[in-house]
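#onboarding

Welcome to the new folks! Below is a worked example of what a typical request in this channel looks like: someone posts a single protein sequence, and someone else replies with the predicted structure as tokens. Don't worry about understanding the tokens yet, we'll cover that in week two.

Example request:
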Amino acid sequence: QVQLVESGGGLVQAGDSLRLSCAASGRTFSNYAMGWFRQAPGKEREFVAAVSWSGGSTYYAGSVKGRFTISRDNAKSTVYLQMNSLKPEDTAVYYCAANSKVVSGTSTQYDYWGQGTQVTVSS
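Example response:
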């Protein structure tokens, strides 16, 4: 089992930045690819970004590429999402997830999920 806890969400204005953190425990963190997903009210869960076991390979949704950066610190068992140039359409609950097999943008391929952290971007 892997337990994931997100933090760092909040209320910001358009153009501002936030850094989300996801702390992992329970199993060997470095064995998992990690991803961030988000879900806005009335919409399905959407892929945001993913990072490989080593941190050497990353994958981003087109809507956030160039603005968001995913990274990981295996010594701290933590994955980060640096969010720059935030837009109102980025408003959602952001979820951290762990994938035991592959770097993926498909939510069903992830094995463990955090509880989420709210990000709200005002105009």
